[in-house]
Design brief:
The structure holds 2 protein chains of 2 kinds. Chain A is mainly α. Helices cover 78% and strands 4% of the residues of chain A. Classes of the chains: A mainly alpha, B mainly alpha.
Chain lengths: 219, 139
């Protein structure tokens, strides 16, 4: 026999009902024990489907990554020190987000917000460097329509960059929410979801810098 | 206050006591994140990132193919490190469901990636006309 209160299923709105009339909202369900935090599992499933999107883009890159159409090759285009700096930004933002989670566990709102801000700035630095790189490539005539290699490159790296950009947007929204509502259970759940998203993007970036940049630079 | 308290109350261990047990609900049954865990992951990730950049930028190994295989292997190790230390993957999280979903995704991924690369490689080598002579004799 498992006790499940209604607000678990239906979030904050039902929670307010429960304040007004707590006895009505409690009911009992006999049966399987569900994982405690369904949202996190659901979000994990979303990440897995996102993983498939990136897998498709990686497969495309693997197939046409050396089809230069007499245009510039990766070895000529890629600026590895810049990529190393970019990688460092994303890795640092991962650990600072980890620190935000640790502060969340200690219920320190100010520190959480500070670490989230640092994470957001590192993410912005990553996006800035990537946009600089793209602008540089386009300035050299290495535009997406130049060759199959460049189409695949811009699609794969651009999709990752877009994910990071939306992650930053989410982070800002979450900072506002934490600032207004404090570290209530809902906000902690949201922070855990963004944590998974952010670390997931770092995992994808491992594939990008290894497979696209480093292997593309090999002679 | 009461609503926040109620949302925490779930699962079988809520039967006896009703007070706020925050430590159970953050990770869906997984262990708490620790500073040590994050730092271990970070240090390992930095090392596993630095090695492939050094291998490629310093042209350490004479053969491109060997370098490629080595950095792919290191990337695979680093992905596991991130999964374990940053994403807190283990056999217990979400009652094993997230690991199952991950395993399913990896299976799909391997089939799709290896299948695409294999098929497209053979299409390239077998279907492309290699010389002008081949091209003239094409049906």
């Amino acid at each position: 026999m498992t006790a499940i209160t209604f607000p678990v299923i239906n979030g904050a709105l039902a929670g307010q009902d429960a304040v007004a009339n707590p006895d009505n909202q409690r009911f009992y369900v006999a049966g399987e024990h569900h994982p405690q935090n369904g949202t996190l599992l659901g979000f994990w499933l979303y990440l897995m489907s996102d993983c498939l999107i990136f897998a498709v883009l990686f497969a495309v890159y693997a197939v046409v990554g050396r089809s230069y159409a007499a245009g510039p090759s990766g070895a000529e285009l890629f600026n590895l020190p810049l990529v190393a700096l970019n990688t460092a930004m994303l890795l640092l933002s991962s650990i600072t987000y980890g620190f935000a989670i640790l502060e969340m566990q200690r219920r320190r709102v100010k520190s959480v917000l500070a670490w989230l801000a640092v994470t957001g700035l590192l993410g912005c630095a990553f996006i800035g460097l990537e946009l600089y790189e793209f602008a540089h490539l386009i300035g050299e005539g290495a535009v997406p329509q130049r060759s199959a290699f460049l189409s695949a490159f811009f699609t794969l790296v651009g999709t990752h960059g877009l994910h990071v950009a939306f992650g930053i947007l989410w982070l800002v929204v979450l900072m506002v929410q934490v600032n207004r509502g404090g570290l209530v259970a809902e906000n902690r759940r949201r922070l855990m979801c963004l944590s998974m998203f952010w670390h997931f993007l770092d995992v994808i970036w491992i594939g990008v810098f290894t497979f696209v940049y480093l292997m593309g630079s090999l002679p | 206050m009461n609503s926040a308290h109620n949302t925490n109350t779930s699962g079988s261990n809520s039967a006896g006591h009703d007070h706020d047990h925050d430590h159970d609900d953050d990770h869906g049954g997984a262990s708490q994140s620790t500073f040590k865990g994050y730092m271990t992951g970070f240090v390992l990730a930095v090392i596993l990132t630095a090695i492939p950049f050094w291998l490629v930028m310093g042209k350490v190994l004479p053969n491109s193919n060997i370098t490629g295989l080595v950095i792919l292997a290191i990337a695979a190790v680093q992905i596991v490190v991130h999964m374990v230390y940053f994403l807190h993957m283990n056999t217990r999280s979400e009652g094993g469901w997230s690991l199952l979903a991950l395993a399913f995704t990896v299976v799909l991924l391997v089939i799709m990636l290896s299948g695409s690369i294999w098929v497209m490689y053979h299409l390239n080598t077998n279907m492309m006309p290699h010389t002008l002579h081949d091209m003239k004799n094409m049906p």
